Amino acid sequence: MPRVSQDQLAARRHEILAAARDCFARFGYEGATVRRLEDATGLSRGAIFHHFRDKESLFLAVAEDDAANMVETVARNGLVQVMRDLLAKAGEAKAGGDTAGWLGTQLEVSRRLRTDPQFAKRWAERSAAIADATRERLQRQREAGVLRDDVPVEVLTQFLELAYDGLVLHLATGRPPGELSRVLDVVEEAVRRG
Amino acid sequence: MPRVSQDQLAARRHEILAAARDCFARFGYEGATVRRLEDATGLSRGAIFHHFRDKESLFLAVAEDDAANMVETVARNGLVQVMRDLLAKAGEAKAGGDTAGWLGTQLEVSRRLRTDPQFAKRWAERSAAIADATRERLQRQREAGVLRDDVPVEVLTQFLELAYDGLVLHLATGRPPGELSRVLDVVEEAVRRG
Question: What pTM does this model have?
Answer without folding.
Answer: 0.80
